[in-house]
# Entry
Amino acid sequence: MDSSTTTSTNTTRRRMRSGAVALGGMGLLAATLVACGSSDEPDKRCASRSSLDHLNMKECKSGGRGAYYYGGSVSNGKVKGGSFDKSAVTRGGIGGHSSSGSSGG
# Structure
């Protein structure tokens, strides 16, 4: 076996490995997106019930000063647009939708 054949074989192997990594990464990305979009769980964050301050998640663990706040968003360190009642919040997700307000007529 001469050196040109060895070099060619090594180059082919490298190309195949990088192609496999790219395909594997795309599969992982697709699985992640599907998993995120199929959950019926609303977004959850930790907040103070009294001040609505957004807190570190460890504050919602046993003995912490926070409670889980579902849905909504965080603006200027405060939670808004969601609820401490998980059943009051529906998840939109990819391809999903949530509704609020009343139906007009």
Remarks:
- Helices lie at 3-38.
- Strands lie at 44-47, 54-55, 67-75, 78-83.
- DSSP finds one helix and four strands in the chain.
